[in-house]
Write a structure and sequence with these properties.
Layout: H1 2-12, E1 14-15, E2 26-28, H2 33-38, H3 40-60, E3 61-62, H4 66-82, H5 86-99, H6 103-108, H7 111-122, H8 132-145, H9 149-165, H10 168-186, E4 188-190, H11 194-223, E5 249-255, E6 267-272, H12 294-308, H13 314-324, H14 328-355, E7 361-367, H15 381-400, E8 403-408, H16 414-423, H17 430-453, E9 459-463, E10 486-492, E11 508-513, E12 517-520, E13 526-529, H18 532-549, H19 555-565, H20 581-587
Parallel strand pairs: 1-3, 5-7, 5-8, 6-7, 8-9, 9-10, 10-11
Antiparallel strand pairs: 2-4, 12-13
Helix pairs in contact: 3-4, 4-5, 4-11, 7-8, 8-11, 9-11, 10-11, 10-14, 12-13, 12-14, 14-18, 15-17, 16-17, 19-20
Length: about 600
């Protein structure tokens, strides 16, 4: 009877097919965002309202998407911890573990919280305020000692690195630059800000005091495991010779611009558009007065990358010292400069990966302009139509240049459109913004889908995205498209294990290395970047090499041979199709 009742209740719930089906919740904020985060009374009232809405949504809706469920339950975990509801928090942790499929994330999520709860219980009768810290470190070390390094090592390095750069100044800057702008313009925060606010509250109240001991525990774990994960990619890669029976292949890099000087002799064309989707001559984004700071920004980018990788390099130490010496008001402009440098570098980095080891590759550059500001130019229906025209013109240019493979390391989704409206204070309320964002997505989705569909002779290789989400549920474009000439790529690390950031879903058909991939940035320096943005051009690289050997292959033929040549890591618990360039090109001789 109980099982039948539960089944009936589940049937009565409203089934959620996509993220847009969920209701929008907003929460009024009196004063500034920092007051909400730091005020006991304001945060308690906020947490109560949020909990009510989450509980109501879970009771009303049948939500099968794991990422959406994690986003609903994670704030409840932080609320429970902050309110001293340890048993409830531990139950939430179990539930969240059950919703996590990636092995490393399943093992490492909530480590700090779990150790803190254990230490709080052990020392609840201790009179000394600092008594919890030794217990916390012991409990964290005990938790870490059970974890397999080959699975969680990179995650622990990244966690340790975060512990070393987080400060009250940095946390304040995050609130002031990421949450306050929307609060100042709308007087409220949306549901997407709930989890960040809960985490910030924990960090201000508890996390900062645990920071030093957590970093020591993480370092001790890393020191006891000096081995590195095996790198499978060198054995799977292959370079084409400069001579032989090969055909030049035009590869389109549809991205933020490319330093054409680095690929002399291989660049055969280019087209570019500004932020208004108007044609512009610059194939590489103009930097203005930031150009003089570029050497320092590259240095800090390398330091940030080294720090994320757990390397105690001079660049990493300089990056941490730079952050530590900044005022809260200086961090926002610094982040914008770093983001501009990232946008400026992105397309060149992607191009270097796509052309690596292929003297037959010919580069066709298609630059769009990406807004690097923390509060970007708002999306609109007019801008969506302009983007649609830009995309159509770009693909028509690819056709005229006889491009065979196009790399698309970018994506849009409803959440981005809605967020840009909220941060700019556009729309009378959340429902109005949701309606406008829906119209923007519908325009851009239809335009991009039709544009790719109407170029059947071009293979488009798209990045899945870095949101650790289901691309179909979140309606990400182009990653959620199903087209015979589109291949969507997820990211794994050097050993072939899924990265914590990679998005996924039924349209994500192949995986490649997207962790600390080295390539060029404008000017010729080489840096390591991570993301599905790096995984996609690895696949575009293989596709172009296949076409250099088999110029008569259709996009469907290329996709089929890439899938046929893909092999999972033998010891992986879940077989993920990983590209194998050496094996795939060998199949062409069969």
């Amino acid at each position: 009877m109980a099982a039948a009742t539960a089944a009936l209740q589940a049937q009565e719930k409203i089934k959620i097919e996509k993220l847009d089906d969920l209701p929008r919740h907003t929460y009024k904020v009196s004063g500034k965002a920092i007051d909400l985060v730091k005020s006991d009374e304001a945060f308690a009232r906020f947490a109560e309202l949020v909990r009510h809405d989450i509980d109501a949504d879970l009771a009303k809706f049948d939500i099968q998407d794991r990422a959406a469920l994690r986003n609903l339950h994670a704030p409840l975990l932080y609320f429970d911890v902050l309110q001293g509801k340890d048993d409830a928090a531990l139950e939430e942790m179990k539930l969240l573990d059950g919703l996590e499929e990636k092995p490393a994330a399943k093992l490492t999520n909530g480590l700090i919280l779990k150790a803190f709860i254990a230490a709080r219980r052990e020392t609840k009768d201790a009179p000394e305020p600092g008594a919890i810290l030794p217990a916390f470190r012991r409990d964290l070390e005990a938790e870490l000692s059970t974890l397999p390094y080959e699975v969680v090592g990179d995650h622990i390095k990244q966690d340790k690195s975060r512990m070393e750069i987080v400060s009250e100044t940095l946390l304040t800057a995050v609130v002031d630059n990421m949450i306050e702008p929307a609060v100042a313009k709308t007087g409220e925060v949306g549901a997407d800000s709930v989890l960040p606010i809960a985490k910030l509250r924990f960090d201000f109240r508890v996390g900062l005091s645990l920071q030093k001991d957590a970093a020591i525990a993480f370092q001790a774990y890393l020191d006891s495991h000096q081995t590195s994960k095996a790198d499978i990619w060198a054995g799977r890669s292959i370079a084409l010779p400069k001579e032989g029976k090969y055909t030049p292949v035009a590869i389109g890099i549809w991205d933020s611009g490319v330093d054409a000087d680095l690929f002399k002799g291989q660049v055969v064309g280019g087209i570019a558009f500004d932020l208004e989707s108007k044609p512009t001559p610059e194939l590489l984004e103009p930097l203005g007065d930031v150009k003089s700071r570029l050497p320092d920004l590259y240095k800090y980018m390398k330091g940030a990358s080294d720090n994320d990788s757990g390397l105690d390099s001079p660049a990493a130490r300089e990056f941490k010292a730079k952050l530590a010496g900044m005022k809260s008001s200086e961090i926002g402009p610094f982040i914008e400069d770093m983001q501009l440098c990232g946008v400026y570098s992105h397309g060149t980095h992607v191009a270097g990966i796509a052309l690596d080891g292929n003297p037959w590759g010919r580069l066709v550059i298609a630059r769009f302009t990406e807004d690097h500001h923390l509060i970007p130019k708002p999306h609109s229906i007019e801008r969506a139509r302009a983007m649609a025209r830009e995309w159509q013109e770009t693909v028509e240019y690819f056709k005229k240049q006889h491009v065979r493979v196009v790399n698309m390391s970018w994506e849009y989704d409803l959440k981005e459109f809605e967020g840009s409206l909220e941060s700019n204070g556009i729309g009378k309320d959340a429902a109005d913004r949701a309606d406008t964002a829906r119209k923007i997505l519908d325009i851009t989705r239809a335009a991009l889908f039709d544009t790719l569909k109407n170029a059947p002779d071009i293979l488009f290789v798209a990045a899945a995205g870095n949101g650790d989400n289901n691309v179909a549920f979140d309606e990400m474009i182009p990653a959620s498209f199903e087209l015979p000439n589109l291949l969507v790529v997820g990211a794994v690390d050097q050993a072939g294990d899924p990265t914590g950031f990679t998005s996924y879903g039924k349209t994500v058909q192949i995986y490649s290395n997207g962790f600390e991939v080295e390539s060029y940035v404008p000017g010729g320096q080489r840096l390591k970047f991570s993301g599905t943005s790096m995984a996609a051009p690895n696949v575009a690289n293989l596709a172009a090499k296949i076409l250099a050997r088999k110029p008569d292959f259709t996009p469907a033929d290329v996709i089929a041979i890439i899938k046929k040549g893909a092999t999972p890591v033998p010891e992986a618990k879940k077989a993920i199709p990983l590209i194998d360039s050496r094996r795939t090109l060998g199949l062409l001789d069969d």
